[in-house]
Amino acid sequence: MPFVETAFSFPILGVTQPKAGFITGSWIGLMAHLTVTYKADGNGPEVIPDSNMMPVSVHSLWTAVAAASQAVGYDPRYLSVRLLIPTPMEGPSAGGIFAVAIAAALLGDSIRPDVCMSGTIEPDLEIRPVGGLIDKMGACRDLRKTTMIVPDGLDNSHLGFSGAERSIGVIQVYSLAEAYSAATGQALRPAP
What is the pLDDT of residues 75-123, one digit of tens each? Predict the structure, then answer.
């Protein structure tokens, strides 16, 4: 069960609420830093969110820890997860990429350098819809990413067109397994 501490950065996308008279908000893309370690005392999971994370984002991180652990069959009691982000963040939209990143740390995989993602993670391992995807696509472009992973199940027909205008490919996913495969190029599988 023990594993080597894993730390890496991955992109998260945000959008501000539109101001009166505007159709969209402004977007921000930034790099989050994740550290996943083995918790030898078995009193986990230990989840250490950054002070920049507001309550809904913290809840999303906890859900991501549970989902990633379940998906790879790792006992979360032996898990410590620390997430640092450089600016205040509120909302569940990064939950999917949180879960992908935690699973990648447990499996020893890397997130592809060309991807960004937006979508919530649910306890049933589904990736669910979020708002502001067109704005978040702008953040993805600003981060010089070329692929955006989004939840399936929305009317996303406009996203392919908007992505093409920005030279960003759009991959729609329904589950953590699909998101993991799209983000890492590897199958989601049991932890060694």
Answer: 999 999 999 999 888 889 999 999 999 999 999 999 999 999 999 999 9
Buried b / exposed e along 62-90 (16+ C-beta atoms within 10 A): bbbbbbbbbbbebebebbbbebbbeeebe
Domain 6-184 CATH (choose: 3.90.226.10, 1.10.150.240, 3.50.50.60, 3.30.230.10) = 3.30.230.10
* Degrees to nearest 5, angle at CA 75 with 40 and 191: 100
Q: How many residues does the chain have?
A: 192
pTM for the complete prediction?
Answer: 0.92
Q: CB burial class (10 A; 0-12, 13-18, 19+) of residue 174? A: middle
* Residue 18: DSSP 8-state: P
With beta carbons less than 8 A apart as the criterion, state whether 150 and 118 touch.
Answer: yes
Every domain of the chain and the residues it spans: 6-184
Query: Which residues, 6 or more positions from 20, have their beta carbon under 8 angstroms from its beta carbon?
Result: none
pLDDT tens digit string along 64-75?
999 999 999 999
Residue with the bigger pLDDT between 63 and 160: it is 63
